[in-house]
Amino acid sequence: MAGRIRDEDVSHIRHSSHIDDVVGDYVQLKNAGGGQKKGLCPFHDEKSPSFHVTPSKGFYHCFGCQTGGDVISFVMKIEHMSFTEAVERLADRMNYQLTYEDGPTRTGGSDRKRLLEANRLAALFYQEQLQQPGPAQVGREFLQSRGFDKDAAARFGVGYAPDEWDALSKLLKARGFTDAELELAGLTKEGQRGYIDRFRNRLVWPIHEISGDVVGFGARRLSEADTGPKYLNTPETPIYKKSALLYGLEIAKKEIAKKRQVVVVEGYTDVMAAHLAGIETAVATCGTAFGDEHIRILRRLLMDDDAFRGEVIFTFDGDAAGQKAALRAFDDDQKFVSQTFVAVEERGLDPCDLRIKDGDAAVRDLIARRVPLFEFAIKSKLKLFNLATAEGRVSALKECAPLIMKIRDKALRPEYVRALSGWIGIDIELVREAVGRNTRESASGARTNVEKNSPTYLLEREVVKSILQFSDLSTTWRELAADDFSDESLRAVFALINERPQALSDLTELMRELEPDSAALITELTVEPLRSAEATESFVVSLIARVREVSLTRKIAELKSTLLRLDPESAEYGPTFSELIALEALRRSLHEKGLGEALL
Predict the structure, then answer these.
(1) How many whole angstroms separate alpha carbon 560 and alpha carbon 293?
(2) Where are the domains of the chain?
(3) Cβ–Cβ under 8 Å, residues 516 and 68
(4) Which fold, 455-593?
(5) Are 476 and 541 in contact (CB under 8 A)?
(6) What is the fold, at CATH topology level, of the domain defined by 111-238?
(7) Least confident range of 374-383, 397-406, 465-474
(8) Would you tell me how many other CB atoms lie within 10 Å of the CB of residue 295?
(9) Mean model confidence pLDDT for the chain
(10) CA 438/CA 415 separation, integer angstroms
(11) Does the predicted model carry a pTM greater than 0.70?
């Protein structure tokens, strides 16, 4: 068993792993000025990007959920890894060999890494088996019947699980894996006479996480004699979380970010058909319903905020189940800023069947003919009522008015009021009244957020930020004292920096010695953009001068209060008055260098 990773190796990994590249595998980042990048936080839902990355310092921080840290802590949090596993993951990423104290030099050895390696080898095994003569022919014939040739199968890594009890497990055990590891990876299960392969005589699709690692499989039965489910997926494992996985995302993510569009289809073959037809933004869920975790993943890739709007297109069958799925998607729409659409083929064909029947162009046309999700959801509801009767029309209005009220874009609501009036055949004023009634009933749920926005606090915060980010621009910050800061948390951070200025060149070392709250604040201030578009020496100097001026103003006020309480004939009065005069003179000189009233 390997020991502790050497500190020198950890330091090398931390400083050599470009945090914007690592974060960029999960979040679409855009330049925010001042050497900053920003995107939608991967750790909580938000409408506007508050997740900032500072590549030059190697830190990230979200100003929404207050999560922050360095590149190692980011990997730990987003992949649910231990410290050692995260360092090993980053080492693998840069092909760096780690050295362990009291252990050999190697590139890792965590449970997660073992599980990923077992899945990688399994994927290769299945792919090789698909090309073998004999039993695998049934798998190749199925693919051909669905319009996929050998190259298509290779492009998506499709494989075949042999109709044998332990073909895969024998191979992997010969590679050094244990029964316990293979069961934990979801590749085997315990049978009546020991462990057996989970997938047998099935066509197999590898499922990747967004970074590209194989974490599980989806397998389709090929024989009617197989009494198992039509599709069998890897069970939940330490690396396979179906609610957080989308099939095809690792190959679609770049096009999703580039085109600001994602097409959500229902199955593995639909993803293949869409991509081969030119819809390279298609993804599918992995044996589960489209949910909140999937939405969070896609929003990060779409940069789904109020300023940048993309498209989320759902494809559903035209049957009752498809309509039910569309109505669920309507509720999910409120979690997107991007516009949501539905693409339904009139004959009820899914993208794979449509490609077989009418070709690639038909699949592209299906996506091009998408209709707004609001329209589809409302019309699906209307089909449940007999609009030829007064009772049916009134019931339909009661059912559909809340849907219009749910539309996030308030500018669209009047348009759908008019449309619903025509679809039902009811006077527009009655529809408007019904929608307005629902809107008023929901208004009581509004909330407000109060932020810490004291002008003095903002000024002091700006100074500490400038010291952390641009301490080389000016040395005048050394003229400050801790008691120049009125905010307790900022005062504590400054005191630490002032005591150990050499730590500014490597904040990680300093943060190890701090309480979590202080360390988090340093991370936050390191990535938060300055309020000036450009950091210059004169800007930093003026900030520092202004803090000193404000601090002197507080001290002058205190001295004046003291003088009012002192007897002019007392021994303390003269020295106190002289100190007041000196401070007044110093404040005037600082005001000339400061920002005046710009920040206060």
Answers:
(1) 59
(2) 7-106, 111-238, 246-372, 384-441, 455-593
(3) no
(4) DNAb Helicase; Chain A (1.10.860)
(5) yes
(6) DNA primase DNAg catalytic core, N-terminal domain (3.90.980)
(7) 465-474
(8) 17
(9) 84
(10) 17
(11) no
